[in-house]
Structures
1.
Amino acid sequence: MIKKLLLLSLLVLFSCSKEELPDSNYDVVVLTAYASEGGYVRSIKSNKGRLQFTIVRPPGSEITIDALPADGYYFFGWSNGGTANPLTFKLNSDMEITAVFKQIK
């Protein structure tokens, strides 16, 4: 029964936008990371690269993300102009970021 309640709570939390959260005690920010053609992104805590992922955390949380190039590509940089890989930063507000990859010639 406890597992079902926990699962239901998580579904409500992650299916709502920040504005729709059921209680104002949920002060969260959202990071959505994307990969351009030629690679993947991942949270440093995850072993699996994805085309995109979303992280929901309290403001000020330290986040580390990683860009993983596919065969025949290299990591060029982040859409915000950063080039560090992995990239670590404090997530203070909602953010979208894209890992940009270029094909090796």
Note: The first strand starts at residue 29 and ends at 35.
2.
Amino acid sequence: MTTGDDQLIREMARRNWLILCVMVLGSLLWKSLPVTVGVLGGGLVVIASFHALHRSLKRLLLTPGQKSGLAFQGGTLVRLLCLAGAIFVLIGPLKAPPLALAAGLSVVVANLLWTTVSRSLSW
């Protein structure tokens, strides 16, 4: 990847945390611990998944071949199982409301939308 690509990824990683902080602060207005846990938990899960996907794709592109493709597929399956487990724990034992969890899980989507709009306006 070029340095511009690396800079974009770093910028997006920082913005993920900024968006999550704003969303968690906004969730405090509900004065409900489960809502805040849902937003925070969803945000942490999706940011970790985004980071793991970035590392896996970078490894796949730097060492192309059938073996690395199979490793990528296996890693994707493990990542999805971990994501499902984390969501199960957040909804089940931690009693996070599904809407709060969905809001937290939308951190990366909001970041991608923000990045797309800001880059298209700068052309």
Note: The mean pLDDT is 93.
3.
Amino acid sequence: MDSIENKYLAFFKRNDISLDAKFLIGVSGGVDSMVCLDLARKNTKNISVAHINYKLRGKESERDEQITKEYCLKWDIPFYLQVSRIDKSKNIQLEARNIRYTFYEEMLKENGLDFIITAHHLNDNVETFFLNASRGSGINGLTGIPSIRKQIIRPLAKVSKNQITDYSTKNQLKFGEDSSNKTSDYNRNFLRNKVLPLLNDQFPNFFNKIDDTILNLKRDKTLLNELINKEINKVIHKKGNGYLINKNNTISTHTWFHFLKEFGFNYKQIINWVENDRQSGKTIFSEHYELSNDRTHWTLFPIDEEKHIEVKLKLNESIINPINLTCEITSLPSSFDKNIGYFDIEQLQFPLTVSKWKKGDKIHPLGMKGIKKISDILIDKKVSSHEKKDVWVIKSNDIIIWLVGFVVNENYKVTDKTNRCYKIKFNLR
């Protein structure tokens, strides 16, 4: 059996990560993280430590902070502490995790570090496998905890709990025991304390065999993703920071599920989406993406979190950003262009306001008797859901005089009685 030191070093070699990089070690003060810290100190040149005191376990929390701090003082290791109180009415484990990784990432950026090291080990991975299996998880959940995720690395992923405790004893490391781990109130603790020890007794080399199963599933997942991408690439086209997707009834719902879940959509959303494809104009959202159904295709783009932009436009002033407009007083037009708006200057009140249209906006379209919603005009013009986000309006005294590139307001048009004409040209980039 490889020693814990060899497995630790093999991780860096296997993943081509230099031991000269700058590492932030997440340390709770428990045996796993203290062993991880000790291995990092002995085998890497530049390490820092991040510790969070959640104030959940009274004297135990203070003890774990002190153990971690003392180790860092002894070996002259930079020590970053955050004290956070968790709302116990919420999911404590989830809240703690969010606080933990937010703090780690902040320390990484503030101190110019390269990687976050956490002490997740082989047994943690097996526990996660069984937890997710009990929830009916698909292949993603059954592939366990990733050994690398962006800048988070887990060099103890192939190290067993027994190896960790043996190393701790051999090196006389001080660590804190979390008394809550001895109870089986949480599902993970129940698996750890009650179920997995029985399986380990019954089946030789149990944890390593489950780890082999997880590895095989990861290989299957890679192959599955390759096949899905091969199928999806036939109908998907990159556009800017998103995609246009041709509608194709030959692609199975499950294939769409595996593709769209990578953008944060859940199973129910995707099933309803694919099975109700005829609902033109429909849009669904994940945390960071929106999927819209236009007449001929779907559009998949990141959610636009841009703040409301509003620019004042003085008389005869031209602008380049956020939209390129050239403005001038001119003679009456002899021809018309959709990207040029002509207005009776006597009807305008300066400065004009330039902004993107928003839901509920209305205009009195040129040649029509009444007002009309801009959303309806864009539908009539067959503007896609994503293209609608880049449509601008120009207002005079808070009244829309031009839906840029589409419609001029009837009440501001030039007539045979117009003495001075104001020309606004929309210059396409």
Note: The CA atoms of residues 76 and 111 lie 16 Å apart.
4.
Amino acid sequence: MNLAEIGSRIKYARELRGLTMAELAARVGVNKSTVKRYEDALIANPKLPALQSIALALGVSPAWLLCKSE
């Protein structure tokens, strides 16, 4: 799992939808700082349910977010 690429994809999808980190955090049910840590690849062992929630909130497939598809 390439954490930097996942973080880049989260940020890309978030910005594409015009969401702030705080707005995404509210949709997912986490703190803004948690979203920042995901985007900056500072979470060493991201949990699959959390990544699935982020994908759902961003309207992208979990496979795309995890770099398993284009």
Note: Residues 7 and 40 are 6 Å apart (CA to CA).
